[in-house]
Amino acid sequence: MSEALLSDLLDACRRLHAGGLLAASDGNLSVRLPDGRIAMTPSGVPKAKVKREDLAMLALDGTILAGRPSSERAMHLAIYRTVPEAKALIHAHPPTAIAWSIARPEWQELPADALPEVILAAGRIPIVPMAIPGTEAMGENLLPFLPAHRLMILARHGGLCWGEHLDEAVGGMERLEQVATILWKAETLGGAQPLAVSDLAELRALRAKLGPKII
Question: What's the pTM value of the predicted model, to 2 decimals?
Fold first, then answer.
């Protein structure tokens, strides 16, 4: 099972790179293995070229067991320690989602009142305050958003999605860039018009029935 998970991790790297969500060696991906170890993409290797032997291994306490894990491992470990159901984590650099956090620094979340997909797919997509990449603050800043939120924008930096499996986490990152792009295009066409209050209430009720997973 562990080897299958590692193969899926490599596939996720290629999928995100092909989708324009990871450039060069940007971002980092990880999975929690059945024995409790965390497998993570290595530092400084382009995601399109990561091989099985490049993957790093960590203990939950942060001890490096093998390889050279990403310098941003603090946020992965913060989530795995805090959320037992987290089995996979994606940190990518979706361009439009990042651009919103730069252009609208006052926002605390991606607007959900105009686009049903935001509510149905994630409930809310909060914007986590900026932290200097590679610092412990990257993990600390996430804690107020856990475990309630699985999909987030990291202000001026990227996107983050954790899930109960890799498909959920990768799909969440793709979803984030999709909705961010739709909102951007609506803005260029005159501004996103909000849904009716009754529609918003119905959508939020449906989301509550769907549960916490990213869809």
Answer: 0.94
